[in-house]
Structure formats: C-alpha cells, structure tokens
Write a structure and sequence with these properties.
Blueprint: E1 17-25, E2 30-39, H1 46-52, H2 58-75, E3 84-89, H3 99-111, E4 118-123, H4 130-143, E5 146-152, H5 156-165, E6 169-172, H6 174-177, H7 184-199, E7 203-206, H8 212-220, E8 225-226, E9 235-236, H9 246-250
Parallel strand pairs: 2-3, 3-4, 4-5, 5-6, 6-7, 7-8
Antiparallel strand pairs: 1-2, 1-8, 1-9
Length: 251
C-alpha cells in the first residue's frame, strides 16, 4: 500500500480530527497505551461520524484513521515513550480484515513505530462474521500487534465471541463500569466476568472510570488497565499525561 500526504488526514471531510486519551496501568503507574479517537467539528464521536457518511466510504475512513493515528501520535512524541498506540477500527466489516493493519504498518515504517507497539481496537465485534473475526485476531498476532475487542457489555453474544476468538484485550463498556461502587448487580457481573476473561489469557480494560472509589473497586477485581475522566480526557493531536499519580497507583 502506498500512502501519500492526504493519508495523513483521518478523512477527506473538513473538520474531522484525531484526539488521544490514555489507558493507564495501575500496576506500573504509567500509561499503557494512547487510544486514537476520531472526532467531528462539533465533538461527534467515531460511530456517530460513521453513521453520517455513505457505507462505501467506511473502509476509506478506517484506513485513513489508522494511518493518521500513527502519524499524529509519532508527531506528538509517542516515539520517545514506551506506551503503545490503540488504533480504532470503527467499521471492521467494511474492508478486508487486515486493511487497517496494512495502512498503520506502512505509516509506522515511515515514522519508526513498529507493529509490536500497535493495538487494534475492533468496534462492533459481536456483529462480525466468525471467520472475519478470526482473520483479524490471527492477522494482527502474526504481525506482532494486539487485538482488543471494544465495548463488551452484558450481551452474551459479545462474551461468546471473546471466548471463542481470544483477543489479547477486551474493553468493558462504560455502562458496566459506571456506578460499580454502588451497584451490587454490576459488581456481581464483573466478579463473574473478569476472571473468566483473564483465565483465557485476555487482559481487561475498564472504560468510564470517573471516581477514585470506582478505580479502587476495579483494582480489587483484578482490573488494572483503566480509562475515563479520572485518567485523562481526550486531547486533539496531543498525548495527555495520566491524572493518576504514582503513589495512588502503588497504594
């Protein structure tokens, strides 16, 4: 794949840009990865933007997001850090399984970011055909990259896909995380779910962490990778530092 200057942009439409937010590792006290997020001129998120463009352009959008994420992150200083880059695949069924990997790898070749530092976050994974999911996970693994299934909720279909195709990481939907300190049902659900995923070799990321007591509850459940307002808000074109200081992480 040959990339030219326009591929540095996430999409051809004006106003679209990439922001980054940290995934914090509470064990090491450092940023584990920076997630690239597609944003619109009025703050629209990736899935909203996807719904506003024709389906035939979805593959192009994901390809440009993948390439643009690498270029933007490296320009912002990722090359001087140990953190990985989490690259979203918003419409994984719109293109061949490894189209985003090819775009990101070529951008990485130009900028110095190796595939081993890339994580590909698959949105809508529960709706994909099994063979496509298998090809994604295996193709990323062969390249040295990781796969994360994004948005696992209480849906048993999503859990079945995780168990069957074994991504390296699974990110919990914020609705499972918010209020875990006060919701007995959510806490029970995570107490059952997290060990099952971990026993099958999958690391768990909790999204939607907004309060310190939620963070501590997640730690007690063995969830050590977290995202949310407590960790850091998305910043356009920049790699924000985590808001969680080392003493709290080491407590």
């Amino acid at each position: 794949m040959v990339l030219d200057e326009e591929d540095w942009q996430p999409a051809a439409s004006p106003g679209l840009h990439l922001a980054f937010r940290p995934v914090h590792d509470v064990v090491s006290g450092r940023v584990f990865a920076y997630e690239a997020l597609l944003r619109g001129p009025d703050g629209e998120e990736g899935d909203e933007i996807l719904a506003q463009i024709p389906p035939e352009r979805h593959a192009e959008l994901d390809r440009r997001v993948a390439a643009g994420a690498v270029y933007r992150a490296m320009t912002a200083g990722l090359g001087t850090m140990v953190a990985r880059l989490l690259i979203p695949i918003y419409s994984p069924g719109a293109a061949p399984a490894l189209a985003s990997l090819a775009a990101a790898t070529e951008a990485g070749r130009r900028t110095g970011l190796v595939p081993e530092r890339m994580i590909f976050g698959v949105h809508g994974f529960a709706d994909l055909a099994g063979q496509h999911l298998a090809d994604l996970v295996e193709g990323h693994r062969r390249a040295g990259s990781l796969t994360a299934f994004v948005g696992l909720s209480h849906d048993p279909v999503g859990y079945t896909a995780c168990v069957r195709y074994r991504p390296a990481m699974v990110r919990l939907d914020p609705e499972l995380v918010n209020g875990i300190d006060s919701s007995w049902s959510r806490r029970l659900m995570l107490e059952e779910l997290v060990p099952r995923l971990r026993d099958r070799g999958m690391r768990v990321i909790a999204d939607g962490v907004e309060q310190e007591n939620v963070l501590q509850r997640l730690r007690s459940l063995g969830i050590f990778h977290v995202q949310g307002e407590l960790v850091g808000s998305p910043l356009p074109g920049a790699l924000p530092a985590t808001r969680i200081v080392r003493p709290a992480a080491a407590a």
